[in-house]
Amino acid sequence: xxxxxxxxxxxxxxxxxxxxxxxxxxxxxxxxxxxxxxxxxxxxxxxxxxxxxxxxxxxxxxxxxxxxxxxxxxxxxxxxxxxxxxxxxxxxxxxxxxxxxxxxxxxxxxxxxxxxxxxxxxxxxxxxxxxxxxxxxxxxxxxxxxxxxxxxxxxxxxxxxxxxxxxxxxxxxxxxxxxxxxxxxxxxxxxxxxxxxxxxxxxxxxxxxxxxxxxxxxxxxxxxxxxxxxxxxxxxxxxxxxxxxxxxxxxxxxxxxxxxxxxxxxxxxxxxxxxxxxxxxxxxxxxxxxxxxxxxxxxxxxxxxxxxxxxxxxxxxxxxxxxxxxxxxxxxxxxxxxxxxxxx
Length: 344
Ligand SMILES: [Zn+2]
Hints:
By secondary structure, the chain is of the alpha/beta class. Helix content is 23%, strand content 25%. Helix 3 crosses helix 4 (179-189).
């Protein structure tokens, strides 16, 4: 069997004809396998959905309990048969519940990694390498210029700023699923134990993370209606970047705008967004992680999905690994989109 017969790009997403299912389809389909809860991968309206327990719960939190017809939870490593095709889910290290999906038939194994990262993240299970014939990788930060620094060192910049400007409210922009909980956990791991205030849109997801055993410390709602700006003097307030453009953010005392994102490596982006304190914290692989992962797995082929496909395809070819871009559409260039692209 050729890999293209097992899994192929189609308008709705990656399609497996033998099992009649899609992976992360961008439009409603009869059967979907979902890698993780970010809105460009997990959409509402599918017939049957197979995903990890956490991803299903996150979809329900975001879309309501009727987000799909029927759902089935896949445990990590469990082998599930769909029409003679074996599928299994493996940790991707991206956000809580995030998985790579292995698809196997007649001795051929393709791994669709979804979004993934290799760096330590105490808010989700660590990426596990899955040997495969074809490795499908994202390339969000697929250019040699992208090197993500140590997240704790980035957090140190925020702690230094809090000491330097004790009168200013520090507003930290972070996407609502994954990044905001990671930022909060990182602050705790750096010894910050004061209350952290969160925008209302983060509350349910933060509660969910806490319910899954991820301690986020003392979280309080950042409600500007019932409180005075002075109440937030010197405090850390975490919210989705989109909230910082509205009235909500201007009510705080001398707000200092920070943003935790892999894109903060690009100075121009920070400047355009009016970000005073950029924090380079990413939930995606940087260039060394992407290339080291491909070296480690040594697949016979690499397929590259969203992001900067061309540079990574070229690198693979120079490394002697046949590679091609899949040109899948519908996955945001994360951080560009308004609320859609997230988890950068
Ligand atoms: Zn994602």
